[in-house]
Amino acid sequence: MDVNMLLESIRESLHQVGVFLPRLLLAIVIVLIGWLFAKAVRFAIVRALRAINFNVVTEKAGIDHFLRQGGSEVDTVRVLGALGFWLVILAALMVASNSLDLTYVTDLIGRIVLFVPKVMFAVIIVVFGAYFARFVASALTVYLRDTHVGEAGLIGRLVLYAIMVFVIMIALDQMGLGDIIRQAFLIIVAGVAFGLALAFGLGGQKRAADVIERWSRSSSDKEPAKSGHAAHQPTKPVL
Quick one: angle between helices 54-61 and 103-146, nearest 10? Predict the structure, then answer.
């Protein structure tokens, strides 16, 4: 009986291994095919974006310069190509894990696969938004300098930062992070506004007192002048 039970357990284990090995081989083949296809997709994305001069837009928008300042050797075009590469890899891993009946892993990878296109679209929004912001800020700065407006460069930078904040908010909302970032941004803006109001309120008391005193003096000087002018007016004779 013991020998039969042992043989039965070994037979069952071999049966499970025999069922699992073809699935494992199929999963490996799917991953390999997905890796080759992902390299082709990355190459196609990079070539297509460079063919339409998308790298020129990213360079003028300042995104590539920002990446180089961070110590990265890649540009925005390569970042989009890498995102496309990992999108295909993750899709292949999702199909492979589904063939192995790994439901939890398949669901987790599926969520990441749905998130990657949002990141790619958010990158494109930031690129075109930064390009538009630099264009508007540059045009406004040139116009203000031509009209001899002081602090034209400062106003241009403020416009650039304001547009970039708006663009980043749109990109984060596209990624599904808009509510969290929006609440944090409102808290930061409220804190900065309160700090500026407090600073100007405490530091500008003397300045405000001087302005009020000048206004009161000017008004008091006008009142005697008006009264004296009224006194010198000739009176009409009473009939």
Answer: 60
